[in-house]
Design brief:
Blueprint: H1 13-23, H2 53-63, E1 70-74, H3 92-104, E2 106-108, E3 117-121, E4 124-128, E5 131-136, H4 137-140, E6 143-149, E7 160-165, H5 189-203, H6 215-236, H7 253-274, H8 281-300
Antiparallel strand pairs: 1-5, 2-5, 3-4, 6-7
Length: 301
Amino acid sequence: MIHIKGISKNTPAEEIINAIKDQNPSLKLEKFNIKFKRNNRNDIEPETDNNDTLNTLENFIIQHPHASIAVCGDFNAWHTLWGGGRYPRSNRRGHDLVDLMSSADLHLCNVGNTLTFETITHGRPRSSIIDLSFSTTPLFNKITHWEVRPNLFPSTQHNIITYKIKLQNPSTATPNQSTFLYRTKNANWHTFKENLLSKIANSQILDTNFLNISPTELDSIVERTTRIINDACTESFPVKTSKHTSKAPFWDDHLEHLKTKCNQLHRILYRTTRSNNTPSPDLIEQYRDTKENYASEIRRA
């Protein structure tokens, strides 16, 4: 079963099949049944967000801070960050989406300024860039070959967007190669000693007659002893965790500082609003200036 989202009911079946074959040359399609499904519960309305979809999305991403998440769709949002110079100003949905990027740590994956939406209304052509792709930091460096492909489904108003995800992504930083698994700086050696002696006594390894055992039996005892030591360490010492994370090649300390400042101001505004208080004009202006500066620096990088 193959799922394709964002396709109009009026799209000819031949176009859909040809597009699937184009993306999957080795796939053999002998029988197919095309079904269209629309889930209004998760739609983002053109003018308002009555279903609170953006907040729901924000809460989900914040609750999964280390997950690799891709968010793609028609957001009906105009903003200078992705407008390719087409939008002299941003609409409310665009500002809301940029706020979501800041609070949920989302990166814009769109590349270039190719139109994603093209139609003719009342004899006048209309076009825009409203189909957007975002990802969280763990996935951002793994997305490649992002491309708008207007000719893939010629009958649709929204041009098809394709991209690839690399399963393995070499990091721009050198990971920690240390073989030490435990943090022993503030170790409780008395607890470790008691755990180790207790486990060895319960294993009955010390009752073994080492003068009359085979090499295979000796290897087995070594493996059991190693497991006992590891178990005692795990119960007595905290395990080291790697702090290494992959970052985009253009990312630097300056952008990280702007991002942190933008997130801090956003959280202050969010808490103030949720408390039914009105944020001060100075706070709103400071947040807007910081956010615009952050977006400008990202484009420059």
